[in-house]
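Blinded run. Sample ID left blank on purpose so nobody reads anything into the name before looking at the predicted structure. Input follows.
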Amino acid sequence: MVEIKTPGEIDAIGAAGQVVARVLAAARAIATPGTRPAELDEAAHDQLIAAALTAAGLTPEVPGLPAGVEAVRRRAAGGAARGGAGSDAAQITSWVEAHFTATTVGGQAVYDLTAPNAGS
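Blinded prediction complete.
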């Protein structure tokens, strides 16, 4: 069976490919002998968070957005030193949990960042 993709699906595949390319480029940029796997994970995480926030239209100017978002954006753009992701991630996680509804997919909580809770 041949499955034909719609133009929207093709656009989504292209966008996902661009995110993957940024993740791989970020990892490659810091991958040197002695780089810890956790540092590569952090670089990938920063790129994924930045892409998700951008796709959802969330910028540092959005009222109530945690300060950690800007730190992640700077790291993803290569504009800040690595480190401290634990507190940034905790801030972002708390904010997302407070402003968006979780849906469980494959045993994981997933949040639609384009649909904030009423009053958020």
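Unblinding after everyone has recorded impressions. The two ends are 45 Å apart (CA to CA).
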